[in-house]
glutamine--tRNA ligase (Hevea brasiliensis), 792 residues
Amino acid sequence: MVVKEGSSETPLELFLKIGLDERTAQNTIANNKVTTNLTAVIHEAGVTEGCNRTIGNLLYTVATKYPANALIHRPTLLGYIVSLKIKTPAQLEAAFSFLSKTASERFKLNEFEEACGVGVEVSVEDIEQTVNEVFEQNKESILELRYRTNVGDLFAHVRKRLPWADPKIVKQLIDAKLFELLGERTAADNEKPSKQKKEKPAKVEDKKVADDNPVQPAEEDLNPFLIFPNPDENFKVHTEIFFSDNSVLRCCNTKEMLDKHLKATKGKVFTRFPPEPNGYLHIGHAKAMFVSFGLAKEQDGCCYLRYDDTNPEAEKKEYIDHIEEIVEWMGWKPFKITYTSDYFQDLHDLAVELIRRGHAYVDHQTPDEIKEYREKKMNSPWRDRPIAESLKLFDEMRRGMIEEGKATLRMKQDMQSDNFNMYDLIAYRIKFTPHPHSGDKWCIYPSYDYAHCIVDSLENITHSLCTLEFETRRASYYWLLHALGIYQPYVWEYSRLNVTNTVMSKRKLNFLVTKKYVDGWDDPRLMTLAGLRRRGVTSTAINAFVRGIGITRSDGSLIRLDRLEYHIREELNKTASRTMVVLHPLKVVINNLESGSIMDLEAKKWPDAQTDDTTAFYKVPFSNVVYIEQSDFRMKDSKDYYGLAPGKSVLLRYAFPIKCTEVVLADDNETIIEIRAEYDPTKKTKPKGVLHWVAEPSPGVDPLKVEVRLFDKLFNSENPAELDDWLSDLNPRSKVVMSNAYAVPSLKNAAAGERFQFERLGYFVVDKDSTPDKLVFNRTVTLRDGYGKSGK
């Protein structure tokens, strides 16, 4: 594809000339790949002086969706578009389908035109007749549902019969026919179906109705895996690699390669989750797991857990064990657990083959020299050494005859490329370090750039899925597989998961852990999966959060922490039983209740507890000494205050109303020591305020004392990673320890990992630091829900 040299027009000016609106044009400029494609398409179509908007929109679709395996036929298609023989999106999609199957082979124009509806004119009368027929067939349902009829279904029926009909005319005629049949909308037509949920929430599923403006399904209910192609479609051009000598490499599998691959996999989807065992996994890895394991599960395929263990200095068995355990906790089951080191012999043998083919050489530049030469786009002095010499030196590297740092094996790619990931990347380096998995068998180790694509091929991975920062490495990925003549997986990049008020870099996480800013990799303030688990977050909540975000290529966006907390609350609201704990106890003595009198009251574990279900309740003692939160008492009352105050009544949850009759102050005449009160045993008093509380279980015996750790955001800023002095942004109140909280007796035997809702306070989990003498609780999340209120 040739773009005219010397053109003074900017891409933006070209895009506006073909009718793109300014916003679309600006967004296109931000994407280098689409900009290049669309510029080439405009020149190829001969419309550099402009065209109407209909043609321009179709050209944009060609630039973004044209099948790469049929580039030879693109000029033909553009001719049909410019001449308006192909003028609708439906015709263009049909053309893409036809050309994708044709690939680079020749085809007959009459067959192409028939497949795309070229020359087919659908009259308004034809459309009107078809609309009438569709309405007649669905009349009973339309009259029943009225304006809640799913117009999309009617539209689909018409399009199935008349695929080349003008969609605008189809929609106009359907709307007109609805009005003719049903008349004006009534008040009942305008009622939203969602209002019915309040009447019978248990039967909402049975009352699904169609709507011409249907409520979009919840993000968690969408299937994010529909975007991926089937394994048998992996014959298309994966990517185009543009070399500095103006040649273009279009990488794709041959029919023989693909057939061999499909025979080995039996046509199933094969993915891999390939963490490097040099740290603990964080919530970003949860998304990676969801994408790779989730796709395999959705398609009834297989997903490897593959340790990318090419760096023997960074890997530890602690990390390997953690990864395997956390993958299982997240609900995923690997098809097989492998290591890149399992393939060290294959990788070495293929490196030898790469040298033999003239695509690799042994280099003696230092790291600084390599950096300098790359910056200047200069070839290494050893780049063109004889193949036999590189083979001999590489063998000496393998046998430990060359010092560490004195030689590397580099791929002979393109040092003058516009893509810095084609600057003769290192394939092997010397390291006299024993490997945790393979021992001391090797003293040369492959790089990630060399190993991961080859192991993908060896394991017959169908979909190699990774985050967008690897997109620029796609050229190197396919260049290497093409150079070796081996099977090429389908590569797709998606956006990283970045959450506000935290850091996700392993380097920064490691610094926080090793420098004791946090209490280990499982500190509940970290977004490590171990930390989230210790905080009380469930794997199902994390997976729901990740699924809700979807699998997109929108990079650079931060996901608000509120959104994760929403999913946590949704899960815990259903699974965490209710109980009562007082964090800042304030003593209340009930004067009109006899000292030593203990009443065992029933409290609900669940808001909707049925009276005949004894397991839904727990016993809570009520005595003449109870404790409430210090914040639930004020010396001065106000209209908007529902707590306790002198002369005011409140209801103790599950117990009785009490009225403050006296306040006992310390010598400073400010500090409140205790409250004196009277209770209403008849419960005739109906105060507005309801408080949680804990009572002495027997005379003179303090309630169960527990430690409660209140965790908050680790950083004050939404994006601390972008700050130069990111450590100064640490939140000094990210962990507050309440050592003298009081709890109801029923919590005494709570086990580590058990989750509860402390009424009016939030969700909490029993921490592993708990002992028989003292329970420790971690706050998982508060009860407030900003994300839910603002809408999912």
About this structure: The CA atoms of residues 644 and 775 lie 29 Å apart. DSSP finds 25 helices and 27 strands in the chain. The first strand starts at residue 239 and ends at 242. Residues 1-7, 194-221, 786-792 have pLDDT under 50 and may be disordered.
